[in-house]
């Protein structure tokens, strides 16, 4: 029996709004992840999979849901993060006036990747900024992941998008259970400002092997081809083409035969 712990990425609000409680959201995510994996992992392969849920710690009930056509709900810090992120994808943005950069960033995302990217960009920057600046909330998110690791004792941890950053830091803070394999999928670990200058940049001590996977079209995993240059102890850094613009969810990754092979190595 291969014990796998998934860690979700940004945008979990949509699951919470449909499911209700944190436990129900966790169950929904687990069902979805298992369904995706089973498209490429033979049903005869025994899997004990669950998904750790931390998104409720990053929600802010005092703020309205974002409007798809208006970034004005973002705080100045969130707008700056949005511009810094998109500049990694579109360097020309650096020349735009400061008060126009957020709107130009969203406009470019829409033109380059479609209208759905605009709303994703708003949510992603708000969640990432909350994680990077709200110390107590970020700590609670990491503790939620660490608790799931301690309880499930996985052979493999699969962390997607923002969850890759949360998991990476959680593993350094609380090594706990030794894990055979950490798989990060489309994470923002090398995004400027994601990790502090003095934080460790290497495989967490409780992880025996670390494999990073990024889709060629994943706009969260930027800058491209930088992880292996900046982190020690990374065993493999894979670039794949999942063939579907679906980076904001883990589905395309989990349905990829290349990712399935990596997970089964655990």
Automatic annotation (TrEMBL):
Cross-referenced InterPro entries: AB_hydrolase_fold
Record protein name field: Serine peptidase
Top-rank taxon, per record: Bacteria
Provenance organism: Amycolatopsis rhizosphaerae
Annotated segments matching region Disordered: 1-23
């Amino acid at each position: 029996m291969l014990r796998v712990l998934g860690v979700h990425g940004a945008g979990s609000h949509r699951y919470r709004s449909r499911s209700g409680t944190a436990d129900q959201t966790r169950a929904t995510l687990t069902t979805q992840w298992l369904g995706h994996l089973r498209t490429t992992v033979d049903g005869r392969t025994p899997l004990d999979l669950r998904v750790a849920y931390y998104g409720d710690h990053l929600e802010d009930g005092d703020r309205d849901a974002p409007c798809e056509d208006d970034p004005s709900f973002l705080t100045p810090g969130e707008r700056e993060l949005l511009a810094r992120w998109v500049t990694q994808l579109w360097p020309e943005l650096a020349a735009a006036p400061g008060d126009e950069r957020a709107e130009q960033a969203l406009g470019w995302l829409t033109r380059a990747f479609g209208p759905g990217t605009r709303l994703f960009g708003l949510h992603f920057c708000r969640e990432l900024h909350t994680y990077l600046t709200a110390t107590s909330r970020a700590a609670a998110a990491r503790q939620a992941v660490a608790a799931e690791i301690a309880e499930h004792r996985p052979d493999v941890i699969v962390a997607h998008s923002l969850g890759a950053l949360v998991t990476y830091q959680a593993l350094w803070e609380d090594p706990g259970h030794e894990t055979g394999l950490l798989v990060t999928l489309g994470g923002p670990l090398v995004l400027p400002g994601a990790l502090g200058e003095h934080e460790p940049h290497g495989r967490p001590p409780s992880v025996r092997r670390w494999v990073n996977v990024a889709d060629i079209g994943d706009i969260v995993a930027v800058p491209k081809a930088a992880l292996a240059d900046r982190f020690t102890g990374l065993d493999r850094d894979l670039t794949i083409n999942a063939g579907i613009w679906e980076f904001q969810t883990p589905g395309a990754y989990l349905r990829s035969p290349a990712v399935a092979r990596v997970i089964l190595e655990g």
